[in-house]
Amino acid sequence: MSQLGSDQFLPTSGLSLEEDILVRKLLLVHDPDGRHLDSELLLQAIEDVMCCATSSETVCDIKGEDDIRQTGVVGSQEPLGVIIHRISSEMVCQCSSQKNMYARTLYLFDLLGYYTWDAKVVLVLAAISMSYAEFCLLIQLSTSNPLAESITMLKRLQPNSKAFKPRLKALSSLIMKMLDMAKYIFKFTNLSISHLNPDKEAIETIKSNICITAFWIIRSSLTSCSHMHDLMTTKPGKLSSLAYTLTKIYDRLKRLVDGLIQQLEKKVEQKLASLFQETRGDNKEALTTLFALKDKFPLKEKYSQAKVGIAELIGKVVVFLISKSEFPSPEEWLLLFHQANNPPQNKTLEGNYEIVWVPISSSCTWTDSEERSFEYLSNCMPWYSLRRPHLLIPAVVNFIKQSWNYKEKPIMVVMDANGAITNLNAIDMLRIWGVKAYPFSSSREEELWEAESWGLQLLFNGIDQLLTYWIEQGKNVCIYGSSDVRWIKEFHSKMEIISEGAQLEIVYVGNRSHHVQMMYTLASIQRHLSPTKIRFFWLRLESMRKSKLRLGKAVNTDQTLQQVSALLDFDENNKGWAIFGQGSSADTIRLDGNRLMECVDKFPKWGQNAGKWGLLNAIRIALEPAARDSPCSHTDTVPFEEGLVEKVRFCAKCKHPMTNFVVYE
């Protein structure tokens, strides 16, 4: 829908004859020239000013202070502060003139002719709130500052008189009522509804009422300005009468706007039922229906924090990260950030997809705690986020919960560039493979597993650079875990001897539980993952199991699922364990606590064979000596090379030693 300020419309039958004539007069001087002001941000600053001016507290919660300092009027040569000051000066001049209030209001309306309706209102409110705040500041300082006291005497103000406080309260109430009216103007102008085929007659009626509302806000501002300069002679009844008129106008506008929004929400609910069942050329309609009904700029930009529209997402794969306003743990955020922003992989895909955080409240109403958590996390977010998630309509929230199966645990729903949902939860894919999982569809998940094999490389996937380097270099690596401090220290001291003789790198990967005891354990071990990377390791293991089970794999037929489930079970049962592997090979040995210690204690017997047979084969033969005397029945043909006959070759299938024969062609 186009901006209200650029629409040319005729008054409707919803107005009285007097109001109808007034609207026609106002439209003659309403000629916006494209100047743009972030009215919503300025209105927030005005609310902050009024909150501090009317509060008895010494400290006020100021929101967006830095943002408003950088805000200006796009298309104007003058800074915002100069514009507001000029309007304020004109209001003071108008108050001292002999013109009647109606003529003075039309004059100020003419002065604001180049601005849109919402900009007219917010600029006038900025001017009157600034004057009111300066007035209140003077009163507050008059008891402790001689200069302020002298000024109040010159202005003939009597802050301690019985008549003063009721007059000041009436003035404050009038300004706050104007702020409420302004919010409903913005509530309407922020709507993005063209794709919903809105009732045109209802739209025109609201526009006419906004025209009337803007007139009365300007008129009331002039009245407030006049009374501020002569507060002691003003009767509170005059301001109360004006406030009553504003209330009637506000109630009418509120009823019309709320009624329209209710109709539109029903249309959204109906549209969502069939939206993702149809093929479209792009994802614009889907994005608009989900997020842009009450906000033309529903997103917060990932770097500048600027508000942006859904145009930034059109034609891209969009991954919706849906969660509560706070994540279960910082490591879950960090792992997603790490995997989604891996520079070598992300660089080639940059611009093809976007991640958008969609926080959902745990109740029907956002709490202060949820708001604070959202503000903090969204400002740190490396992705887009919904700018005002509390504006998500109930129909959309219900759709996310029911159709996308959101149960308050984080999920990542994937929409392709055509607006089709290709994955209802890609969070495990991202944890396992990072951006290599692009375009994050369910079919891509199956492709990745088909190309994947079990091994140390899968377990770490770049979450630790040193371990990754060792694996790429083909080194022997042992990773182990436990929560039993005594067992860990005993195992570690014995393995230090083995690592020297067998050229083995040993790394402690902890357990899933975060507690102080583990920190003491890490302090006594030379090589271990950092606490954050330990958490990454276990989160990825959990994601691997969930991903496999979601694809219908079984433990008894899938090696990766079998190995991962065993590690998670060891951890749940507080058992010590270790995995031995060499480089990126899929050949590994997994041992639990008792077998592991048995293997370690037998090192003097099998250690000398590690160089000849390889570490893993030497361990197997040490634990299963009978295998050495009973060659398997499998066969394997390899090209001849010098010294091959003298070497012991092990079967790739059963790992038993094989008997060598020479075959001539």
From TrEMBL:
Residues 18-279 form the Sieve element occlusion N-terminal domain. It comes from Eucalyptus globulus (Tasmanian blue gum). It comes from the Eukaryota. Pfam families: SEO_C (PF14577), SEO_N (PF14576). Residues 443-664 form the Sieve element occlusion C-terminal domain. This is Protein SIEVE ELEMENT OCCLUSION C.
